């Protein structure tokens, strides 16, 4: 008897003390499909008065907790489902009580899909009759019922990626009547990732990027990030990495043939060709003579179809025509390639100087991405005067001043002063990352990155064979520039010169033999000879000549000349 009288008495007191009101967050009045007599127990203005702050018991707030905001498209072997917990409370924060409805067939919540990719995804929940109901493209709304103010929804992803938004509306007041303005809440967005790689990015660490692993080997730390077409991370993607550290031939007019899709053409390579690539090591530590380009890696930058960027030249039919190991995309039928694929920048090359790439887990040329779609890798290379700064040494043809970094001009030609190669343009390092996509379509995500080089370790040091010189005769000083790791001699680096004199009339002549281009640079072994002569001086005159590395001003040495 006690359990029956208490709610009746409590409801009577509430009805006596205050008026009834509904909360308003939406101007749309939803139809009541579950209440035949559509009983109203609220004021026309949906406001009412509440002079002493006692709750009306009508819905005032809806909270929605999504178990997992990120799921994957169905059929990708990943989690494609999540749950939503819904709680409806009154203005005091107490859960609504459906027992006041006196009708167990009333649904009091409406679930409406606001935005979705329409790939077969749906929300499902339980209605007042105990039946499972679910949304669809033709029926974006379903009505369900809470129990003790709580309800749950299940979300199942479809086959398409995208973002899903759902709206929850509380439709009924404490007595089961329809609220003139429902209480509305929007659930946090649920994102559906495709789990199919669309883009692979190569990211180079800036701090502590190069590590000394002893035995005259350095390694540079990089990272790949794989995303799908909508920018969602793709986890457990297998990324295959490859490296060219010697370019045999390259150009900017590559073409993919229409008829035979496995042919590649170029009319005017900048140097070399498919039959007689030009490369030989000037330092002659050991000869490099690759002969034909057959079997070399062919990298093509920025093809409209990413999967076309990484190939192997399996046969050369002439200087400018070759067959590759895998067909190119169907350019003739692809809707955004009406004019075909031409004027493509390309490189033909091999790993000739000892460069290699491994995943952080030690897998040769392979990285498996984590939950963020990321994975680290290492580019390892010999740390010797012959290999250090390969791809980093800059130069310009016909310019007075050298550039600090390598660069490509407007025509796509690479500029370098790296005379360690007969063809300085061979001295390039290019990384390629490839992710296999959908096995049914053969889609691939490929990135070609020519920005890498065999970097040294910061903290360079510049020394001089003598720092205190006396007299007016000519002095010969040997400079030596090494890096901050294994003290690897740094070849072909520009050296800046600055002079401070105790008297303006004192003259200091500095002579050196340019290695390449103009200006003072280290030689192939990180050294440089300079001749210093003080003239027109008086006893006691002093001059300080400061030499500093152009790319690391902290690496400097001062030579003092004193006139006797």
TrEMBL record:
Signal sequence segment: 1-23
Superkingdom of the organism of origin: Bacteria
Regions of compositional bias (Acidic residues) in chain numbering: 26-46
UniProt entry keywords in alphabetical sequence: Signal
Region (Disordered): 23-58
Entry protein name: Big-1 domain-containing protein
Organism of origin: Alkalilimnicola ehrlichii
């Amino acid at each position: 008897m006690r359990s029956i009288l208490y709610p009746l008495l409590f409801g009577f007191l509430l009805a006596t003390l205050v008026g009834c009101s509904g909360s308003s967050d939406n101007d749309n009045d939803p139809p009541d499909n579950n209440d035949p007599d559509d009983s109203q127990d609220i004021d026309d203005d949906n406001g009412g008065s509440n002079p002493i702050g006692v709750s009306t018991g009508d819905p005032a707030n809806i909270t929605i907790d999504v178990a997992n905001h990120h799921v994957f498209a169905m059929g990708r072997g990943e989690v494609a489902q999540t749950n939503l917990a819904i709680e409806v409370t009154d203005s005091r924060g107490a859960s609504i009580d459906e027992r006041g409805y006196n009708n167990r067939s009333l649904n009091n919540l409406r679930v409406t899909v606001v935005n979705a990719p329409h790939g077969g995804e749906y929300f499902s929940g339980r209605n007042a009759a105990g039946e499972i109901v679910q949304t669809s493209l033709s029926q974006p709304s379903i009505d369900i019922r809470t129990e003790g103010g709580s309800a749950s929804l299940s979300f199942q992803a479809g086959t398409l990626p995208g973002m899903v938004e759902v709206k929850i509306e509380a439709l009924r007041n404490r007595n089961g009547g329809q609220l003139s303005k429902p209480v509305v809440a929007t659930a946090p967005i649920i994102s559906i990732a495709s789990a199919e790689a669309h883009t692979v990015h190569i990211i180079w660490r800036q701090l502590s990027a190069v590590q000394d692993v002893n035995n005259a080997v350095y390694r540079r730390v990089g990272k790949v990030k794989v995303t799908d077409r909508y920018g969602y991370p793709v986890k457990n993607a297998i990324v295959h990495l490859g490296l060219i550290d010697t370019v045999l031939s390259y150009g900017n007019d590559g073409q993919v043939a229409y008829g035979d899709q496995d042919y590649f053409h170029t009319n005017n390579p900048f140097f070399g060709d498919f039959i007689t690539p030009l490369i030989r090591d000037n330092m002659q530590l050991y000869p490099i003579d690759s002969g034909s380009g057959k079997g070399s890696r062919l990298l093509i930058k920025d093809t409209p179809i990413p999967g076309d960027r990484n190939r192997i030249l399996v046969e050369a039919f002439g200087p400018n025509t070759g067959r590759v190991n895998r067909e190119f995309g169907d350019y003739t039928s692809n809707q955004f390639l009406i004019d075909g694929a031409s004027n493509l920048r390309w490189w033909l090359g091999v790993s000739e100087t000892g460069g290699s790439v491994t995943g952080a887990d030690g897998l040769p040329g392979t990285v498996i991405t984590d939950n963020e779609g990321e994975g680290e890798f290492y580019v390892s290379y010999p740390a010797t005067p012959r290999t250090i700064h390969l791809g980093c040494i800059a130069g310009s043809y016909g310019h007075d001043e050298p550039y600090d970094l390598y660069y490509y001009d407007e025509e796509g030609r690479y500029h370098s002063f790296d005379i360690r190669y007969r063809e300085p343009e061979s001295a390039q390092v290019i990384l390629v990352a490839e992710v296999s996509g959908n096995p049914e379509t053969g889609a691939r995500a490929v990135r070609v990155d020519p920005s890498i080089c065999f970097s040294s370790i910061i903290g360079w040091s510049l020394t001089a064979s003598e720092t205190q010189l006396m007299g007016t005769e000519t002095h010969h000083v040997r400079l030596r520039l090494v890096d901050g790791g294994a003290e690897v001699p740094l070849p072909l680096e520009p050296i800046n010169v600055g002079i401070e004199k105790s008297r303006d009339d004192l003259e200091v002549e500095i002579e050196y033999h340019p290695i390449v281009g103009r200006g003072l640079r280290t030689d192939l072994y990180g050294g440089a000879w300079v001749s210093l002569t003080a003239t027109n001086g008086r006893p006691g005159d002093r001059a300080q000549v400061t030499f500093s590395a152009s790319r690391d001003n902290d690496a400097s040495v001062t030579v003092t000349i004193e006139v006797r």
